[in-house]
Design goal:
Blueprint (H helix, E strand, L loop, with lengths): L12 H10 L6 H9 L18 E4 L2 E3 L2 H11 L8 E5 L5 H10 L4 E6 L2 H12 L4 H6 L2 E5 L12 E6 L8 H6 E12 L3 E8 L5 E9 L7 H5 L3
Parallel strand pairs: 3-4, 3-6, 4-5, 6-7
Antiparallel strand pairs: 1-2, 7-8, 8-9
Length: 230
């Protein structure tokens, strides 16, 4: 999906959300409210325009996705991010989407971020502590962990919603295993050519898979390969 606007003329978080709504990327009022609640400016590198519709480098060969991609993934997962549900964010990076998940599943739910770069886990924790999700982090329903996201995070499985923020050559079996029957996984799949795939786990354990759109994400890989620049 192409970026929706160019340049950095937007200077308020609500303006960004309004623009995503006006272009039909955000249709859900709940998603709009959550993206207004979690200010993107708290999750991008200092001295960068926070509301431009571009992915941004955050160090360690990692990017934060463009706002339209975050909005699309929240829309796709909304029905699996109800209060009390469990959500996993693989490759949680800055912690932005993990914080959004936490706001949606609320105090009685669980939002888990997994990132294999310890420095990003530390910085994402600081980002979240400055955001509207800070109390959820403090009290425990929201947590971010150092780990290989390809293996998921079994401690809080099964998950109603799983999001993967990097492209995998195939759907990792561990994530399918940790997905709850009735749950949904959203993951970019491919190498040079990638599709954002929506994977629904049926109640009998079988999978229904469809492609939502063509995308371009950094690879889901090992920590060592990532630091080498793949």
């Amino acid at each position: 999906m192409e970026r929706i606007w160019r340049g950095s003329s937007i200077n308020k978080n609500k303006e960004m959300v309004d623009r995503l709504q006006s272009h039909g990327v955000i249709r859900s009022q709940k998603v709009a409210e959550v993206m207004e609640t979690i200010d993107r400016a708290l999750f991008v590198p200092a001295d960068t325009p926070p509301y431009v519709d571009n992915p941004m480098q955050i160090g360690y060969n990692v990017t934060i996705s463009a706002p339209h991609m975050h909005a699309m993934c929240l829309e796709l997962l909304e029905n699996h991010l109800k209060p009390g549900m469990h959500a996993l964010d693989v490759g949680s990076g800055t912690g932005y989407l993990t914080a959004c998940f936490a706001i949606m599943v609320e105090q009685q739910g669980r939002a888990v971020g997994v990132e294999h770069i310890p420095e990003l886990v530390e910085s994402s924790t600081r980002n979240i502590q400055r955001s509207a999700a800070a109390e959820l982090l403090k009290e425990g329903p929201l947590s971010v962990h150092v780990g290989d996201g390809r293996l998921g995070w079994p401690d809080f499985a099964p998950y109603d919603a799983i999001h993967v923020g990097a492209a995998s050559p195939e759907i990792p079996p561990a994530l399918v295993e940790q997905l709850k029957p009735g749950g949904r996984l959203v993951i970019p799949v491919g190498n040079i050519f990638q599709d954002l795939q929506v994977v629904d786990k049926n109640m009998d354990g079988s999978l229904s898979v469809r492609s939502e759109t063509s995308v371009r994400y950094v690879p889901l890989t090992s920590r060592e390969a990532q630091l080498r620049g793949y």
